[in-house]
Structures are given as C-alpha cells and as structure tokens.
Design brief:
Number of strands: 13
CATH architecture of the largest domain: 3-Layer(aba) Sandwich
Number of helices: 16
Bound molecules: alpha-D-glucopyranose
Distance between the termini: 20 Å
C-alpha cells in the first residue's frame, strides 16, 4: 500500500521541539504531504524547503485562548468553525489529518468531520494541571475520545498522562522522536575548538543546555548549580518562544545575584546546535516538571557527550542511569552539581564507555526512520480501517 496522503496541521510556526519533530517526519514521509499552519513563522519556510505545500490560515480569537484558561469564548468557537471550513477542501484531498498541537487538533477534528476524514492527534505534552487548566484537559481528552482515530504520544509518560486524564487507552500509540545523527557526525572538530577559544572557554568545563527558555525547562537550576562548580561555564542555547521573555531576564538577574554572570553565556536560538553540543564537555537537561520527551537528551547522546538529565517524564525512557547517561532529581541545583561532579570523577574509560553506548542506543532507538515507520503504522491502520467495507 502506498503511503497515505497526509494533511499536517499545526497552530504554531515557531521552531519548538514538536515543530522540529514535524520537520523530521515530513522529511521522511513518502506519500503526498501538504500542511496548513494556523500562524506564520519560520516553520513555513522549513516545511517548504522539504517540498511540502504550505497554506497559512491565521487563528483569530482561538489564538487568544490560553492553555491555562477555563473555557474558550464564543469568538474562539466561531473561529474553529471558520478555520474548519477553510481546511475542509485540502482535507478532502488527503487520506488523513495529522494534528501536531492541541489547538490544531480542535480545528482538524472539526475539519475532519466536514470532510469525512480521520484525524490523528500527535500529542507532545504531558496533560497535567501543571501546564493546562483542568477544563482544558477535560475538553481535549473528550474531543480525542470522540473524534480522534488515534493519538500518537511522544513517550510512555505522555501516554500515561493521557490515560490518567480519562483518555481512551485503545487510541494511544507511543512513537518516540527520531533525530538525525548525520549533523552530529559531520561536525568539524576544528570548528568546535575555534568556538571555544573565541568564547574564552578553551580551558573551562563547559556545560551545555539547549531548549526554549521557559520556567519549567529549568535553566535557572543550571545557573544556580554553577555556584557549586567554580570551574564550570554554562552555555545556554535557546530563546523564549511563547511569551516567556521575562524568564530570560530573570535568568540574567539570577546569574548576576549569584556572582556567576561571567560564567553564563546566553547563546540564543542557534542553527549550529550539533557543533555547540560537540564543543561542550557535558550536556544537561534541567526541566523541573516532567519532560514529555526531551529531544536535547538524545541530541547530547548523538553529540557523544556525557548527558545528565532530570529524572521525570519521558527522560528515564531515553536514558538508562549509569549505562547510557545519568539522571538527577529535577529542580535541585545541589543534586545536579553533585551528579555532574560524580560524572567528572569517573575514570575516563568508564565515562567513554557510557558515551559510546549512549550514541549507539540513540542511533538505534531514536532514528528518524524508526519514527517515520512508527507514525506510518498508525496512519496506515487508521486509513485502512476506514477502507474496510462495513
Ligand atoms: C515538546 C515537548 C518535548 C518534546 C517535543 C517533541 O516540545 O515539550 O519534551 O521533546 O515536544 O516531542
């Protein structure tokens, strides 16, 4: 059977983890691909560069609805109806709709109803009240149970939270993110040395953190941990993406107050992340709430750096503590510094063995090919289920 024709729908067009996954997914998809974005942004050009036809249908009032808010206003409902009717035509040209975000799932569910096409929700969030209002979770889960042909969760932890919120267990399939290793393998060591030298960090112990700046991603834990690691420098890669600019500012203030500002480099959003991670001495992941998946954990493994990550959410599904990396309790700067110290104190041979095992494990378990095949299985079964007579 040829690959189903897919209409990909996303409400955001910034390049967060979920959007980066979408790029890897469409990049490997063999069937016809078309995308509708409910906002304009860099995701559009990135999709087009992969040969995807993209339409932008901006959100109106629905865009104002916050994930923490109790209920959508009437304006938002009118918006869903308007967008759904706009999506109905491209939806009819596809076999299945793939919604990559919660808001896009609401719109896709309505469009699927009009166009009589199945809708699959790719869930990248752990649905708990730490990030969503209770009524928002209830509404999303109810819509999934009644309108989703399948739900793809980015980890067992994400799937478990969906079920715990009342989500139908039969709908959920876990497909891990797949991350290409080639950009990491292609990094030029000279470029790494040059970057360290230019940053003045040739002799420091460089700890890299990568991800959008947001309170729950916990970059402040790393900044605080620097106090206990006087020879360490932090490279903080990423920027605030969803209105969390104040947090970026508080990180600078925190660093100044702790007297570590000269050891924190805010590198912003970068397109040379593989080089930066390979140029570092250790990669950390510091989320204080359970991380749904944690792409940077896999990226650190692919960069062949020791990885110390927060022990919650999907992360322990990626790292086997002491075998393919190390885990530390979330939100505890002292424990993080201690764990990093313990990793540094290991015999080099022992550390290198973990790093080598981690690289092999990441290539084997988190390849884009495995991800594309996993999503394909789900979409195939959804589409063929509909093709079956009766
Ligand atoms: C979201 C999650 C992150 C995950 C990514 C890809 O950004 O917060 O944990 O890695 O989606 O699934």
């Amino acid at each position: 059977m040829s690959a189903p024709r897919v209409l990909f729908v996303s409400h955001t067009a910034v390049l967060g983890g979920a959007e980066r996954m979408l790029l890897d997914l469409v990049g490997g998809w063999e069937g016809e691909r078309r995308a509708v974005l409910l906002a304009s942004g860099p995701l559009r050009a990135a999709l087009e560069a992969r040969g995807v036809t993209v339409d932008v249908e901006p959100l109106g009032a629905l865009g104002e609805t916050r994930r923490e808010s109790a209920a959508p206003g009437l304006g938002a409902l009118v918006d869903v109806a308007r967008l759904a009717s706009r999506l109905a035509a491209p939806a009819r040209e596809a076999d299945v709709l793939h919604a990559n975000t919660q808001k896009s799932f609401v719109v896709a569910a309505a469009a699927g109803l009009i166009a009589r096409r199945p809708v699959v929700w790719h869930l990248h969030d752990i649905l708990t009240t730490a990030h969503f209002s209770a009524s928002n979770i209830r509404a999303a889960v109810m819509l999934a149970n009644t309108r989703a042909a399948a739900v793809i969760a980015n980890s067992e932890a994400t799937a478990a939270a969906f079920r715990a919120a009342g989500g139908n267990a039969k709908l959920v399939h876990v497909v891990y993110n797949g991350i290409p290793s080639a950009p990491f393998d292609a990094v030029d060591q000279e470029a790494c040395h040059a970057f360290r030298a230019a940053s003045g960090d040739a002799h420091a112990f460089v700890i890299a953190a990568c991800g959008r700046l947001a309170p729950w991603k916990g970059q402040h834990v790393l900044v605080a941990a620097l106090e206990a690691m006087p020879d360490a420098v932090a490279w903080i890669i990423g920027r605030a993406l969803f209105g969390e600019d104040r947090y970026a500012e508080t990180l600078r203030i925190q660093a100044a107050e702790l007297g570590v500002a000269d050891r924190v480099r805010f590198l912003g959003e970068r397109e040379d992340v593989p080089m930066l991670l390979r140029a570092s001495d250790l990669v950390v992941h510091t989320s204080v709430d359970p991380e749904p998946f944690g792409r940077v954990v896999v990226e650190g493994m692919l960069a062949r750096r020791p990885v110390v990550a927060a022990d919650a959410g999907g992360v322990p599904e990626i790292i086997r503590h002491g075998e393919t990396g190390w885990l530390a309790p979330p939100g505890d700067p002292g424990a993080l510094a201690e764990r990093i110290g313990a990793v540094r104190a290991l015999a080099p041979g022992e550390r290198d063995a973990v790093v080598a095992r981690a690289y092999a494990d990441a290539v084997a378990r988190f390849s884009p090919a495995a991800m594309v095949a996993g999503v394909r299985d789900v979409l195939d079964s959804v589409v063929s289920g509909r093709r079956r007579p009766g």
